[in-house]
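look at this:
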Amino acid sequence: MSTIVKQPVYPQNGTTNAATVNSDFSAIATATADINEQNVRQEGIDFRNIGFNPNIQYMDVQDNETQVDFFTDATTYSAWTYEAYSNAVGGGTKEWALNHNSSPPVTSTSAGSGTKLQLNGAAGITPQPGDIIKINWSFVVWETNSETTPIQDQCSDVPRASSSQGGGIYGTGSGIGEVCWLVYPKVNVTSSALVDADFETLSASGLRATSLATLDPKNVTPGIANAQPVNGATQVGWDHVTVVPHIFIAANNTQSSAAIAYYTGDGNSFRSDGFLNNPNMMSGSVTIEVDADFSGTLYGIELFLSGLWRMKATSLGYGNSTIASLFLEDETCDPTNDLYGYEGRLTIERAHIMLTHYTKEGA
């Protein structure tokens, strides 16, 4: 790539000598072979355009480095298990940070552990209005399980479908309940200490326009009366959410021994009234444009989990139109006492999260 000065021999056909030849080879040997600012501009191109993507301002990834062999019972690492919100389970917890690490059963809330990614050390990054922030994540659902024994108690005779759990032994509903967990990223624009409580949604943090509100399970009131629409004009953003299905099937509204498809990594948790799935890798991604009013510092990102959620049909109040909605479960599962809620636990194994900060400006 570099230019050198040679001592011409041909076509003059003069007398050659060792000094001339050695001088030429020395010039060649010492010329830079790198594609760098010493030579590329002689080729009529800009060094920045053949290096890294000039639009990427920052990129980093956090992995919990957790991996265990198949046939490992989830109870071996109880700290990897996150419980549902209900009156009986989890003490009313609506949201968990996925903070388990590679030293079971230890968990940590410090930066660089679990899925808590600290950006640019304590300094953080300062995305400008109009910049693009992309967050990718993945995790392995190692096991889902009933909090109640036997398992059909979780798949209670009939899931409630109206404003209450209904009355009588079968209550109200179709006998089919759509149940899921939610996994999603949150960001911290408060402090490099990265305290779990300081993490906010993309819109609440100011990174995303408030007109594009992002669902925040932590601030959702549980219960069927507070169902959150997932389509329609009044919805909040669900584009940052990974749904972990928790599948219930009943033959009819009097079926007491329902079937549930659940994940397990121990390889031998088959039950007479359940179906077995292997551990399942799930992923998600969200890309946003930094809001015009944002002028802060982004210190970190982290994955959170909220569950169990249940589907409900919500009337729009005119005609026969309805929209799908989800509500955070608040009832216990106790069909004997006419309580038709869901309870459950979700065990996560591997998990990782990555952030890429782009600018729209060219080189």
In short: Residues 55-358 form one domain. The two ends are 22 Å apart (CA to CA).
